[in-house]
């Protein structure tokens, strides 16, 4: 896990090529929506579909969502999907995937760590990735479904998939990532897990997002917009009471080895607002 830069997987759908680039200047955008909006600013002329995680994804409870940023007819939209994708992406070593331009014909993307294979639309989803370590996001009739269950509000993702000729994205991560301070990490993890009563949803029997025991009925449709700090981490909005606590945020970041300062976190909303002004 690179703690000094952001590792971006850039995919050109028109040329069916890809490359991985690291950007130290993107570190201050933290992740999630902050990173996604800055990447939109950088690659906007290529009509990107941007999928991002934050520094807590794959490590802590309720940091369970994946951020998606698109340009929808001139309006920049940010929305969030639950399921397993955030954790799978953590173990690819990639902070963000940027899908630029448009494929000539219906295309399936099979991503294994930082490698991409381009396949034709008739390829079976069951043949993609590694069972038990993959997330599959695929168009299923009118909606895009992740893990055959989780989806997003509205139809921004479906419209972008159709426009770009994307049928399915399979994501598999096999890299081993361990916190530097394992004992302190485990203690904090269980402390946060025990605070599930502070979530603004009720426990249920529906499929749970990764690192969440709630199985709430509201996880299926994901989230749209909201608190930019929460969505830069990328935590669940229903855990806002927990992850709005700057002390908790810094405890999590420090245990993982990040050197963000209070000033970095305090400046983030202004940085995002500045980026949005440029985009508009």
UniProtKB/TrEMBL annotation:
InterPro entries assigned: Ald_Fedxn_OxRdtase_N (IPR013983), Ald_Fedxn_OxRdtase_N_sf (IPR036503), W-dependent_AOR (IPR051919)
Domain Aldehyde ferredoxin oxidoreductase N-terminal: 7-175
Molecular functions (GO terms): iron-sulfur cluster binding; oxidoreductase activity, acting on the aldehyde or oxo group of donors, iron-sulfur protein as acceptor
Highest taxon of source: Bacteria
Protein name: Aldehyde ferredoxin oxidoreductase N-terminal domain-containing protein
């Amino acid at each position: 896990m690179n703690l000094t830069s952001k590792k971006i997987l850039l995919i050109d759908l028109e040329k069916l090529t890809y490359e991985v680039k690291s950007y130290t200047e993107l570190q201050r955008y933290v992740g999630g929506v902050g990173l996604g909006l800055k990447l939109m600013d950088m690659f906007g002329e290529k009509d990107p579909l941007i999928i991002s995680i934050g520094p807590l994804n794959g490590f802590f409870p309720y940091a369970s969502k994946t951020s998606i940023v698109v340009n929808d007819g001139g309006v920049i939209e940010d929305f969030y999907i639950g399921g397993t994708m955030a954790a799978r992406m953590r173990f690819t070593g990639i902070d963000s995937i940027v899908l630029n331009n448009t494929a000539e014909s219906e295309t399936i993307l099979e991503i294994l760590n930082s490698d991409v294979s381009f396949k034709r639309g008739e390829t079976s989803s069951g043949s993609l990735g590694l069972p038990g370590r993959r997330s599959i996001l695929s168009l299923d009739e009118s909606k895009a479904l992740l893990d055959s269950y989780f989806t997003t509000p509205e139809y921004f993702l479906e419209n972008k998939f159709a426009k770009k000729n994307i049928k399915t994205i399979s994501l598999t991560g096999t890299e081993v990532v361990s916190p530097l301070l394992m004992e302190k990490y485990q203690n904090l993890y269980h402390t946060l897990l025990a605070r599930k009563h502070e979530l603004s949803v009720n426990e249920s029997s529906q499929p749970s997002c990764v690192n969440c025991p709630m199985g709430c009925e509201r996880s299926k449709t994901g989230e749209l917009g909201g608190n930019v700090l929460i969505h830069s981490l990328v935590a669940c909005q229903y855990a806002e009471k927990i992850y709005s606590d700057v002390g908790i945020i810094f405890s999590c970041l420090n245990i993982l080895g990040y050197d963000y300062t209070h000033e970095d976190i305090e400046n983030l909303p202004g940085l995002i607002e500045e980026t949005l002004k440029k985009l508009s």
